[in-house]
Amino acid sequence: MPLKGKAFKYGSHIDTDAIIPARHLNLVEPADLARHCMEDIDAGFVSRVKNGDIIVADINFGCGSSREHAPVAIKASGVSCVIAKSFARIFFRNAINIGLPLLECEEAVDNIKAGDTVEVDLASGAITNLSSGKTFTSKAYPEFMMQIVQAGGLVEHTRKKLSGAK
Amino acid sequence: MTLAEKILAAHCGKASVSPGDFLSVRTDLVLSNDITAPIAIREFERLGVSTVFDPKKIVMVPDHFCPNKDIQSAEQAKMMRDFARKHKLVYFEVGEMGIEHVILPEKGLVLPGEVVVGADSHTCTYGALGAFATGMGSTDIAIAMATGEIWMKVPPTIKFVFHGKPGKWVGGKDLILYLIGDIGVDGALYSALEFHGEAVEKLGMDGRFTMSNMAIESGGKAGLFHVDDKTRSYLKGRTSRKYKEYRSDPDAAYARVIEYDTSKIEPQVAFPHLPSNTKPVSQAGAIAIDQVVIGSCTNGRMDDLRIAANILKGRKVDPHLRLIILPGSQQVYLDALKEGLIETFIRAGAAVSTPTCGPCLGGYMGILAAGERCVSTTNRNFVGRMGHVKSEVYLANPAVAAASAIAGRIAGPEEIK
Ligand code: SF4
User: Fold this and answer.
1) B314 CA to middle of ligand 1, Å?
2) Distance (Å) from the C-alpha of residue B12 to the closest C-alpha of chain A?
3) B215 touches chain A (CB under 8 A)
4) Which terminus of chain A is more exposed, N or C, with fewer CB under 10 A?
5) Residue B86 burial by Cβ neighbours in a 10 Å radius (0-12, 13-18, 19+)
């Protein structure tokens, strides 16, 4: 099933304090975190974002702290995936681990404007800008990570492994 | 192989590994804190296991919002405390506590050649001891707590060589800020940093912790030093466990080698809102400030407090400014007390706090209002990091922070008469 939604566009080095400010880290519930997603850099994000929408950003998205609250807040806000030129390391593994798909594709980022409607096919890595009709292909996940993604996250992946080992 | 590659190979039972390999790595220590543990505990419980892999190898530290800053933080801290006690984990209650990255080395919980994973991005601090230590998320930590293993991709290593002697007021903070200013906040993305050269050999352990601590601020996965006599004497008396020293091979393959002439590096100030936005302090210009924070896992150790006290001794903090000092652990607090540093701080007009992360991440104990500026010895100056989105954080070493507190504006220690 392809992911589809409107693009929210951001610049480089969007840090985890911007995604979910530390003052809200006393919250645990995904829905509570989602209410503060992006609030310090885009106060209108929470009221405008709809299920399926897609975040499109430049380089080093998610830099800063290890807080898993960041991908959790994005996912719970309804965002279906994040497309960026590159991701910070810990954010990348957190997102994969909790089942928020990330796609790395420079061309797509350069050719998607805020508000464009974008469709993503995770299986093939195809990103289509329905507003312009152009299609781009993102980097494929390494085999190892694909297994985690296909299992639905690291906990599910490990549960499978643990029950197989018994 | 490089130092990082050797440690990882030894922890997955392989004779050799190369950058890009995916490994299941055995962990020697698994860390989380009061904001990351609650999520890790939830995920741990979803796994359907009943026990942790080894309670002696799992540490939880209540440092971010502890002593509890509000009801929600209190609930989170309680969740962690209950779990830690139930599973008999290594746990430091508030009265013996400290910031995780100060307390773990201090208590001898991290040794050279070990692999440490923590649900905190500054877990890379322990690279100063020649350990491979890296930050991860809460789900990763849940898996590591349950199985003692975690997936990792072997990072390429970048070698940094600091030639020459550092100037009088130049410390580990300045070397690492200079490096980040040079390569950028994603300059070492996914990589391990390896520190070499005369200048880093001269650094004490506290300065090395500062450098490894900020490897993440260049996107790095780990920031490693080789073990030398300073490391060995630091470890003496802290542990009876055996450890292994690894060294990079002379023909190890580095992704890049970057060399600096340390004698040309001045104390650095990172301007808002990125740690890479650095300038030598002499070029900072006249910037009035409202608050100075000295502390954190970056610069909250004895050497840092000594430097600050040296400058503050017999002087007064500018009356328009708040100076807040947070010793990194109870032990640091006690040592500072014995050496008379705490009295120096209080006489100078500083507020001295019990150890906590507090203002470093905009938690409590020194939050900034709109338009306020702070010079801080912490590691991040992102938008809103220490309070209001319209506040500003300038990162610097403890000498610059103390001098600025006296001057009421960003100032180098040489300017203080
Ligand atoms: S002192 Fe600051 S950077 Fe260090 S662990 Fe605490 S919040 Fe994180």
Assistant:
1) 30
2) 16
3) no
4) C
5) exposed
**B369–chain A Cβ distance below 8 A for any pair:** no
Scanning every residue of chain B, which has its alpha carbon at the shortest distance from the alpha carbon of A16?
B382
Query: Residue B361 is nearest to which of A22, A59, A68, comparing CB atoms?
Result: A22
The residue to mutate among B32, B361, B377, having the most atoms of ligand 1 within 8 angstroms of its beta carbon, is B361
**Domain range summary for chain B, segments of one domain joined by +:** 3-260, 268-415
Identify the residue among A68, A100, A146 best suited for mutation to test binding to B, counting B beta carbons within 10 A and taking the highest: A68
* Contact flag B139-A63 (C-beta cutoff 8 Å): no
Q: Two tokens at B178?
A: 């200079």
Give per-residue pLDDT as tens, B3-47. Answer: 999 999 999 999 999 999 999 999 999 999 999 999 999 999 999
Average pLDDT value for residue range B172-186: 98
Q: Is residue B176 over pLDDT 90?
A: yes
What's chain B's length in residues? Answer: 417
Instruction: Report pLDDT for A165.
Output: 60
Q: Which of B39, B190, B380 sits opposite A68 (nearest CB)?
A: B39
User: Is the CB of B277 within 6 Å of ligand 1?
Assistant: no
The pLDDT tens digits for B122-149 are 999 999 999 999 999 999 999 999 999 9
Confidence at A152, pLDDT banded by 50, 70, 90: confident
Query: Does the beta carbon of B301 lie inside 6 Å of ligand 1?
Result: no
Predicted TM-score of the model (pTM) = 0.96
Residue A140: the pLDDT is: 82
The CATH fold assigned to B268-415 is: Aconitase; domain 3 (3.30.499)
* Cα–Cα separations (whole angstroms), residue B128 to A36, B80, B141, B213, B360: 36, 28, 22, 8, 21
Q: Does B250 touch chain A (CB under 8 A)?
A: no
CATH number of B3-260, picked from 3.40.50.300, 3.90.1210.10, 3.30.499.10, 3.40.630.10? 3.30.499.10
Please answer whether residues B308 and B383 qualify as being in contact, where contact means their C-beta atoms are separated by less than 8 angstroms: no
Q: Is B15 left (phi over 0), alpha (psi -120 to 50) or beta?
A: alpha
Are the folds of B3-260 and B268-415 the same? yes
Give me the interface pTM, i.e. the ipTM: 0.90
The amino acid occupying position A114 is A
Task: Tell me the pLDDT tens digit for each residue of A87-144.
Answer: 999 999 999 999 999 999 999 999 999 999 999 998 889 999 999 999 999 988 888 8
